[in-house]
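Consider the following input, taken from an annotated entry for DUF4034 domain-containing protein (Streptomyces pharetrae CZA14).
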Amino acid sequence: MARDGARPAYDPAGPDTALRAALQEVRAGRWMSMRTLLAETASWWRWTQRTQVLAAAAAGTDVVRAWLAEEPHSLPAALMHARVAVERALRAHRERHGRTTELWHEAWRASDALTRAAPHDPVPWVCLLALSRLDEEQRWAEHRVAPPEPMLPPGPWGLLTEADKRDPYNREAHHRMLQFLYGRSASGRLAEAAGFAHWAADAAPPGSPLHLLPLYVRVERYRRDGGRDAALDLHWVAEDASREALRAFHGWFEPATATERGPLDLNHLAHALWGALRFAEADRVFDAVGPYWTPLPWTHRTAAPGDHAQAAEVFQQARARSRSGARRP
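Applying the prediction step yields:
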């Protein structure tokens, strides 16, 4: 299926069939499958990823509220309540909604309470990290803690440390930190975000998805520079771009310890290797992507960012070009 050239289709569950089934139930307003799925989730990586995807689906419904009403002492239900509250606050912030501050504080209270109710769980700290980007002026003391390295800026480092204590190198926690730093660089060149991404990638063990953080910063820089411009295509073939792509490939994709292979990371790596003209490596990653295409980062390479149909076309062209290039002697 990975090599048959079929048109890709986006699925937020990716290859996780159990999550896909639970998502269908959540969208229908039923919570029992979600409870069962979370009860069977053993690793922190799966726990973090599944609760995030479920919250995105549940944020427009009352399904988690119904679960919590039926089982008011359930920690998973309370966690999903916090996850949904965070998702709603972030959406309100993006849309500049008048209730943003109210939703933010509600989400913060739910997440903060969970740091004590579920002291071994990294997700409450990930939730607090996600909310830190709403404090755009860094008025809260926990959002302007001194950094672990002199070249990094003040920020919610204590929250990242707490998540890291419970699940070292937690993928979402580091991406939430990256998003906080994007907010500090609203009109800049993302130097702070790039510095953090390289610092985290350099410290990550083989097989960690943190090796891909510099690729995300490069996509964000391309987006801010305007994207889809002939001159900007050099952005992807520059020596440092090729070096970042290969370091991510060797640091994350190749090691046998690379068990955390989500579709979004695979798509970013395939995109970076294709852009750097590293077709042999890109072909291997496209095989791993299979049918589980994600709109990002491909939508930034289209004439109309946000057009998923065009983004899917770019994905297919990149896959075909990589396969063709990989077969050449």
